[in-house]
Structures
1.
Amino acid sequence: MAKTIMIVDDSASMRQVVGIALRGANYTVIEGRDGQDALTKLDGQKVHLIISDVNMPNMDGIAFVKAVKQMPNYRFTPIIMLTTESEDAKKREGQAAGAKAWVVKPFKPEVLLGAVQKLCLP
């Protein structure tokens, strides 16, 4: 059975690029337009990994990670931040919120897939 990964990004083109890479590696993909939209889609179904942008309207990625970690069904779900943010302070903030990895845009699909494979173990 394919593992399910949620992509959270306000950019439709970024969701598309990440989705193509993940689907090509046989993952099932759920998409959220921002943190709020993504939270509504976390409805109890099994999600093996979340990939989230940091800078988004309505609810940014850090607030989203904090909200996910409060949900009993998802508090142990690994989260990768995929963002243009590269400052150490922002990375520490993401890590403190519960993010497990940080990938900076622009990214190489193989780098992202490598991080996904490490965190999406059987």
2.
Amino acid sequence: MRYFRLALALMLFAQAYETQQWFYLLFGLFFLMQALFNLGCGASGCDVNYKKKNHHS
């Protein structure tokens, strides 16, 4: 998934350069940061694993 995000970022950078539409750089930077720092949702989704604690005294 990281390689996909990196490829998408590079494609967006190229698109921004070719079309002179510089707002594509923002989207490219977003995907580049996700790829470099491994941010975002993984294969299991963005669920938060809540565990209930039983307090038996």
3.
Amino acid sequence: MQLAMIGLGKMGGNMSRRLMAGGHQVVGFNRDKKVALALAEEIGLQPETSLKGMVGALKAPRIVWLMIPAGDPVEQLVSELAELLSPADIVVDGGNSNFNDSMRRADLLKAKGIHMLDAGVSGGVWGLEGGYSMMVGGEKGIVEHMRPIFETLAPGPDQGWGHMGPSGAGHYVKMVHNGIEYGLMEAYAEGFEIMRAREDFALNLHQVAEVWRYGSVVRSWLLDLTARALEDDQSLSDIEGWVADSGEGRWTVFEAINQEVPAPIITLALMQRFASRQDDSYAAKLLAAMRNQFGGHAVKKASD
């Protein structure tokens, strides 16, 4: 099959490589033209330097896959594509868009006869080799039409991907997936910090991770990556303890509140990421001040 890939960063570039290795034709477009030209030279995709040129290079019905940051970039591109594409063409948003936005954009394109799928993609930089997990929302018939592409990108033809439901369902499931990821990562981080604090045991944390990777009930791909991170430097001396969030953890917490579903682990994991960004916590200062006031407990001065 033939498709256009918009956004040729790490994910989009690697997905293009996997698709071409699977026999598909890829037309590539990137905001930075040099990226598309470089990838064209490396793997042989067809580069285009304008959206109009990209659409013109595709055979109808056209397939356009977006791998770009959520929010305004997707909004702008969908609006532009709505004017360039024709009825029966297909747009796939493979980024981490909010599911509410995906539902709205699908309706916008549907009014013009254009189909839209929302595909939550997981796999990161390892997807090129091992395949990508994909959670797809949209019309069942369009998903079936796209099956050869999903099967090529997935770990196996019938593994790691599936049709989740109507428009928005794919990004909804990916949102919750990322919320769970927050909780898992926080649990590993806390556990390893507890072990590191027991200095008299002098635990080799890389060894612990390697032992847990095989046979343990807490084994996982995240643990595999933890072991890899600890292999050369257990103290992680080159890394600052500042943790970003992509937004999907927040959306998961918002949705838990909207649905009145208790989600304390995911919520606290998100709060811990916020805490990681504070050089000096006012809340912690106030807690210390309160303890001093009601109990005369010692306060550590800033100059200490």
